[in-house]
Amino acid sequence: KRVAVLISGRGSNMQALIEAAVDPSYPAEIVAVLSNRPDAGGLATAAAQGIGTAAVDHRGFASREAHEEALVAAIERFRPDIVCLAGYMRLLTADFTDRYAGRMINIHPSLLPLFPGLHTHERALDAGMRVHGCTVHFVTAGMDEGPIIAQAAIAIEAGDTPDQLATRLLAAEHRLYPHALALVATGAVRWVEGRAVLAEVGG
Ligand code: GRF
Predict the structure, then answer these.
(1) Among 22, 146, 160, 174, whose CB has the most other CB atoms within 10 angstroms?
(2) Ligand 1, closest atom to CA 170?
(3) Given a cut of 70, is residue 202 above it in pLDDT?
């Protein structure tokens, strides 16, 4: 399966996907990395590895819709089967999420449906959680609300700061995202009428 990755920043999850896809037996190939920020660190990292990149700066457009239209055109030049959001920090319109329904996935740094949105590590600590985690889900119009594909949990330790927790969770994200993308690329998890359905083993 051909995969385009959308980022806004450093792109460490993007890099985890690229590294997984180097293995010829991995069921997906990273064919493009796109960003709304021309200065996103991950764009340069991807280009240095010979991956096609494109920046579509949202600041150059009058509306969210106009930006997304240009972004879709840039994405479609790479003919991806699957779109992975990896720290892509723009809200998406329903038109955009509908276009890629069932083939666009996102990684979020919490055990959804707990803590959608920002500052998830701080909020998990404030809530007195003893575990924290990350979620890969299909993207729908509701932010961080789409059907869950895979999750990983980590323990919260006494004295953890939000930064320490974020660092430990990031390592778990880097393992989870390649696994979750493989589940979607092989059809082990499928989008069926707006739900994420696990294929039955042997079925
Ligand atoms: C990750 O924590 C991801 O879960 C969140 O944004 C961060 C992106 O980090 N959505 P990176 O750019 O992949 O390093």
Answers:
(1) 146
(2) 2
(3) no
Nearest CA to ligand 1 atom 8: 87
**Quick check: pTM over 0.90?**
yes
The answer to whether 121 is a known catalytic residue is no
Respond yes or no on whether the N-terminal peptide bond of residue 113 is cis (omega within 30° of 0). yes
What residue ranges define each of the domains in the chain, with the CATH number in brackets? Answer: 2-198 (3.40.50.170)
Among the residues of the chain, which ranges form H helices? 12-21, 41-48, 64-76, 94-99, 120-126, 162-186
Cα of 166 from ligand 1 centre, angstroms: 10
pLDDT of residue 161: 98
- List, as one string, the DSSP characters of 144-180: T-SPEEEEEEEEPPTT--HHHHHHHHHHHHHHHHHHH
State pLDDT tens for residues 117-154: 999 999 999 999 999 999 999 999 999 999 999 999 99
- With the most atoms of ligand 1 within 8 angstroms of its CB, the residue from 107, 154, 163, 168 to mutate is 107
**Sole residue written with tokens 């990031």:** 170
Whether ipTM tops 0.90, in short, is yes
At which residue do the structure tokens 């609300």 appear? Answer: 145
